[in-house]
Design a protein that fits this description.
Length: about 725
């Protein structure tokens, strides 16, 4: 039994588009049964082209984006984000090198090079890796093998321009026959500071270049692929974070092999990521004035430069075979990462703080999964995963601590407090292990043709990240939370344990579809910052880093619940209506508090007039007021005014035209009436000069006219 909804929404109709028209936006809601329940969306589906591929998911139920900068969006799904999410690019786990996730995984796949982005709605299968949040998978454009021995060319070229977001150009060129395929790709994006009704948002310019090559070989039932991609990000703003991107210089390699042998489908993959990264607080913003802090002159309180090195190597190997009227899959996968970070002051060369020194996290997982049909119109997915995580970090050092060691400063001064933290960390047991087990059970019941009920349960786990464990000195390093607090790590952290239940309906009726989902998630040992009671941590944070109320990563308990849905109906032959609604409630039950940075009730409603080669869409996007603010993460004046956000709504208008010879054109306007509003997930402004006051929530952008020209063959 397989109930299929294959609805192309009113946004941009792909049913009538030719095969080469993939870069023109579309949504496909492939509702199938829950064990294969995905929402697949092609790039550019926002009203305007976007430099951040993560924006693509915002039209999917339950999904949204934490915006820290124009190229630094983090996926949020049903209230979870950052290291709790599993994001794969070409089936490759991309390990961010930035300490605040300035290079979240989709940073490495610009929209112009993305072929599709898929969200697994609800519970992710154990075979796709560890993680308690959702699963997002993206694939880049590349040529397919063809049936002929003669080589055939393919190309995909796109040029986009926006009045309020800069421009981009991208392209993929390839050759393929039945045995070989080759391709080269490239992309470049550039944009100035964004504008809103009150002026400009400082520190929101961006610049990024991406290029790569790929090769594939096919023989018999075997296929080998090799890809290399380089990303060169130049100074780019992250106004919700304490520093901006100076550069990212990242190389990624991806080797894959698929084969049919002995009645088993084998799949193997080996991938590697090398990141060189720097960030600073003086190229795109004025450095903070810390002259009032009780600092000795050697610390140099204003300008900061952070040098980061990160590399990761991963693999996956699995075999799938038919058994008991279904398909079983057995496999092993792993990811081994290492991170180092060095804080420096360009005005005081001797100053340094080694905040991470070869901090490692090695993951190896074993899994077994079965998907199949049961009698009486039932189907089942069951899965089990064992995950072993080994973490470690080398001893650290800092120049203030060295000066204390030399006797230049007496006990009780900030340098000697830093030395005390260093000694405590270096003398502690840092070689730590976590053993976790995940389990998934999903049932689908076909009530009748066109209607299926989905049930699901999952026990998922997550080991603490290297940042949550090994950040030994209080700094604003927290994987991009953007809450303006200093954090310190905790070597005693336990793994998070999530228990999730889900109930859904997929109803495909004449001229429409309706697919709601309700969920509840209880998380034991949820890792969140709580007020530090350590006097040494408080002293260092207040005296050296300007935050007298630092937080420490701590195990707590949390719960999240909500509902999300998609709906569509064809009103008449050329006119159709589509809607998405999402709501999630997040609580920290240990602290009797709300979770931080949770999206309010939000949704989209689109009305499209569609013809064979053109369409026009009017779209409303909005969110309700969010007044459920975390009290545990306190942001007081003058650092921030963490206040509730008001409800808002904007109107977008756009259309497209497709020619029969491969040329495509899109044009439109976002925020047609130049509405002033603030997205609750946008974070707080850290950049000056800016027309947004320091500490205020970053506003939504103003009116944005755009155009996009694409040609594919």
């Amino acid at each position: 039994m397989r109930l299929g909804i294959a609805v192309v929404t009113t946004l941009l109709p792909a049913l009538l588009a030719p095969a080469w028209a993939q870069q023109i936006p579309e949504i496909k809601i492939i509702g199938t049964n829950q064990r294969d329940d995905v929402l697949n969306i092609t790039p550019g589906v926002s009203a305007a082209p976007t430099p951040d591929s993560m924006d693509i998911i915002k039209r999917l139920p339950g999904a949204t984006v934490n915006r820290n900068g124009p190229l630094s969006g983090q996926a949020q799904y049903r209230g979870l984000f950052g290291p709790r999410m599993t994001v794969l690019v070409n089936s490759m786990r991309v390990t961010p090198g930035g300490l605040n996730w300035m290079d979240a995984p989709m940073h490495y796949l610009p929209p112009g090079l993305a072929n599709n982005v898929t969200l697994t709605r609800g519970i992710a299968p154990v075979s796709r890796g560890p993680g308690i949040g959702g699963l997002i998978e993206a694939r880049s454009k590349q040529p397919d093998f063809v049936s002929s021995a003669e080589f055939q060319s393919m190309g995909d070229l796109t040029l986009s321009g926006m009045s309020n977001d800069g421009y981009s150009v991208s392209g993929v060129l390839g050759l393929s026959n039945q045995r070989h395929r080759f391709h080269v790709l490239g992309s470049y994006e550039d944009g100035d500071d964004l504008e809103f009704g009150g002026g400009k948002i400082g520190g929101t310019s961006h610049e990024r270049g991406t290029y790569g090559v790929g090769y594939g070989l096919s023989w018999g039932s075997n296929e080998l692929s090799l890809e290399y991609t380089h990303t060169d990000t130049e100074p780019t703003g992250t106004p919700a974070l304490p520093l901006d991107i100076d550069f990212f210089d990242t190389d990624r390699f991806n080797l894959g092999l698929r084969s049919e042998w002995g009645g088993v489908t084998w799949a193997a993959q080996l991938f590697y990521t090398d990141v060189e990264h720097a960030m600073n607080n003086f190229l795109l913003r004025d450095p903070p004035d810390n002259s009032s802090l009780p600092l000795p002159p050697f610390i140099g309180p204003e300008r900061r430069f952070v040098d980061v090195e990160s590399d990761a190597i991963g693999f996956a190997f699995s075999g799938a075979f038919d058994v008991l009227s279904g398909t079983a899959k057995l496999g092993i996968d792993g990811n081994f990462e290492e991170h180092s970070g060095l804080v420096q002051d360009p005005d005081v060369p001797p100053f340094f703080v080694q905040n991470f020194n070869k901090a490692t996290q090695d993951n190896i997982g074993l899994f077994a999964e079965w998907l199949g049909e049961l009698p009486e119109d039932w189907s089942l997915e069951i899965g089990l995963r064992y995950q072993r995580t080994e973490s470690d970090a080398d001893p650290v050092q800092a120049q203030p601590a060295q000066l204390c060691d030399s006797g230049a400063f007496p006990p009780g001064t900030p340098p000697c407090a830093v030395a005390a933290l260093r000694n405590r960390f270096n003398n502690a047991k840092r070689d730590l292990d976590d053993d976790n087990v995940d389990a998934v059970v999903k049932l689908d019941w076909k009530i009748r043709d066109g209607m299926t009920v989905n049930f699901g349960y999952a026990h998922k786990t997550r080991a603490p990240s290297y940042i949550e464990r090994y950040l030994w000195i209080p700094l604003e390093v927290n994987s991009g939370l953007g809450d303006l607090n200093n954090y310190v790590g905790n070597l005693d952290l336990k793994s998070e344990k999530s228990n999730q239940v889900e109930l859904g309906l997929e109803w495909n009726f004449e001229n429409g579809y309706f697919a709601p989902r309700a969920f509840f998630r209880d998380i034991k040992d949820f890792i969140q910052g709580t007020a530090s009671t350590d006097p040494i941590v408080i002293a260092v944070s207040g005296a050296a880093n300007g935050d007298p109320t630092p937080l420490q990563f701590t195990n707590t308990d949390a719960e999240l619940y909500g509902v999300d849905l998609v709906f569509g109906y064809r009103l008449m032959e050329p006119l159709s209506l589509d809607a998405t609604v999402s709501y999630v409630r997040g609580k920290n039950t240990s602290l009797d508090d709300n979770l931080y940075r949770i999206a309010p009730l939000n949704g989209r409603l689109a009305l499209t007039w569609e013809r064979q080669d053109w369409s026009v869409t009017v779209e409303g996007v909005g969110a309700a007021k969010q007044k459920k603010i975390s009290r545990a993460i306190v942001l007081d004046e003058p650092r921030s005014t963490n206040e509730p956000t008001s409800g808002w709504g904007i109107l977008n208008l756009y259309g497209q035209w497709r020619s029969p010879w491969g040329l495509q054109f899109r044009a439109g306007v976002e925020n047609l009436f130049d509405k002033d509003y603030a997205n609750h997930l946008a974070g707080f402004n850290r950049t000056m000069p800016s027309d947004v006051p320091f500490g205020e929530r970053l506003p939504g952008t103003g009116v944005n006219w755009f155009g996009q020209l694409a040609y594919a063959w």
